[in-house]
Amino acid sequence: MRFAVTLGRFLLGLYFFLPGISKVTGYADTLSYMALHNIPAPDLLLPITIVLQIGGGVMLMIGMRVSQVALMFAGMTLIINLGMHDFWNVYEGVSQAHETQNFVKNLAIFAGLLVMSGAEDLPQHRLLSHK
Q1: What pLDDT, in 10s, does the model give residues 16-41?
Q2: To bridge 85 with a disulfide, which of 20, 54, 95, 103 should be the other Cys (CB 3.0-4.6 Å)?
Q3: Are 84 and 36 contacting, i.e. CB atoms less than 8 angstroms apart?
Q4: For residue 110, is pLDDT > 60?
């Protein structure tokens, strides 16, 4: 069980770390995408997002402050989901089906992050229990 929890934590960390890196390499494209979705202050929010994704991703991968980082990512995922994957709006050049898929996928990631944020407080033998 401990291996599964560690692997899951590492993969969730990687899920945020890699997009953080891609936002650095594709900075202008990410700013444009944020502007297309009417995200306020993208010049301020993008660098903050990059730092949180890279730093928080590494923290999850190495197991540092897991509960706090997972809770922060849960909130961040929910905000990003509502602002950037708003499938109920139509944008030129943006697939609603793709945005719907991202929205639903992010809800699952949000759920996993919520579980991870509270899992540290559970006894080890109950981490994967459904009781």
Answers
A1: 999 999 999 999 999 999 999 999 99
A2: 103
A3: no
A4: yes
